[in-house]
Amino acid sequence: CQGCEAFSFMTDVTQERILAALRQVKDPERGNDIVSLGMVSGVQIREGHVGFAIEVEPERGPRLEPLRKAAEKAVADLDGVLSASVVLTAHKQAARPAAAQQQGPHAGHRHAPQKPLVPEVRSIVAVASGKGGVGKSTVAVNLALALAANGLKVGLLDADIYGPSQPRLLGLKGRPHTKDGKILEPMEAFGIKTMSIGFLVNEDQAMIWRGPMVMSALQQMLRDVNWGALDVMIVDMPPGTGDAQLTMAQQVPLAGAVIVSTPQDLALLDARKGIAMFRKVEVPILGIVENMSYFLCPHCGERTDIFAHGGARHEAEKLGVPFLGEVPLDLAIRETSDGGTPIVASAPQSKYAEIFRAMAAQVASQLGAEPLAPPKIVVE
């Protein structure tokens, strides 16, 4: 079928053919092709999908959008190429003179303005953590389901390129289909739409991708997916403060971020870094979640604070951001997550589902009714 063909492996899509096509694309201001000028970097090919970056000077970025589109079309027109995703970057200009960096409060690295990637999505919320292993993906999926349970149309984007978890958490297998060979239909589970790189690669396959390919993949999962009209899109971010976070902050109008942490000091230290990063790119912090807050013995009911307790609440008070609530370390949450039936969907009357619905209500109350303007990026 057409959907299967869209993801079949294309052996004739090679870097040599891509670069040959790009040699026909000339920089209008420098008079030579973009390959000879050394402007093409990070070419990545995956089952007929191509992504790469064009490196330009920051001040030329806003006027080189036609060049980006020409390069994208040149590659997309090649036989065997299913999609091409191109971004303008300014990596070669990273070490700018200090005087140039101080010309204004936002005189840093900017991408050329582009049309909205998901124009029908009213609010986009990033769920992030400063480090891995704090249960961020479990919180993200249950928060998305809780928002849907509260009556909103919800989508879930798994932006954790290196460690996608949402296919397992939602019990979804197989690959998304496409009606026209270009736009993917999102997978659906428990009433929410979702997309993940995990649908396109084997579960045990390592994703060894450089920054430009990560950026391209995220753009495609936003732009080339039929998300339709949504009240909220929850984005399950990878841990840390790297390319994925900056790409999302630059490319989409994030309404805010939810930070997930465990109570102990080590996790909170990394959570602070995540909060600082989102604040630097002018993304509001909607709140902090303390996951694995405490353990209740399933036999005797005794409570044990394995990772200490209350650290995230105290951190939220200190930083002046909302505290969304505490999620305990419980066997039921773990079992339903591993089984592909998250607790909010499989046990909606449970006290744990009530916790997530209360968090969702707080998040929803902070979201504006109108789409927000993309935040400005500040590089110091």
Secondary-structure blueprint:
Layout (H helix, E strand, L loop, with lengths): L1 H5 L8 H8 L17 E7 L2 E7 L9 H12 L6 E7 L8 H4 L19 E8 L7 H14 L4 E5 L7 H4 L17 E3 L2 E5 L14 H13 L6 E7 L6 H9 L2 E8 L3 H16 L4 E12 L6 E2 L6 H9 L3 E7 L1 H8 L4 H4 L4 H16 L14
Parallel strand pairs: 2-3, 4-8, 4-9, 5-7, 5-8, 9-10, 10-12
Antiparallel strand pairs: 1-2, 6-7, 10-11
Helix pairs in contact: 5-13, 7-8
Could you write a compact summary of the structure shown?
The protein is of the alpha/beta class and 380 residues long. The protein has helices spanning 2-6, 15-22, 65-76, 98-101, 136-149, 166-169, 211-223, 243-251, 265-280, 311-319, 331-338, 343-346, 351-366; strands at 40-46, 49-55, 83-89, 121-128, 154-158, 187-189, 192-196, 230-236, 254-261, 285-296, 303-304, 323-329.
Structure description:
The chain is 32% helix and 21% strand. It starts with a helix and ends in a 14-residue tail after the last helix. The model is unreliable at 1-11, 91-114 and 369-380 (pLDDT under 50). The longest helix is centred in the C-terminal third of the chain and has 16 residues, at 265-280. It has 380 residues and is an alpha/beta fold. The strands form 2 sheets. Strands 4, 5, 6, 7, 8, 9, 10, 11 and 12 form a 9-stranded mixed sheet that branches. A 3-stranded mixed sheet has the order 1-2-3, with helices on both faces. A hairpin with a 6-residue loop joins β10 and β11 (303-304). α5 crosses α13 (351-366).
Question: Which series of helices and strands comes N to C?
Answer: HHEEHEHEHEHEEHEHEHEEHEHHH
Report the mean per-residue pLDDT as an integer.
79
What structural class do the secondary elements suggest? alpha/beta
The CA-CA distance between the termini, in Å, is 50 Å
What is the strand tally?
A: 12
Determine the oligomeric state from the structure.
single chain
- H/I helix tally: 13
Q: Rg, please? A: 22 Å
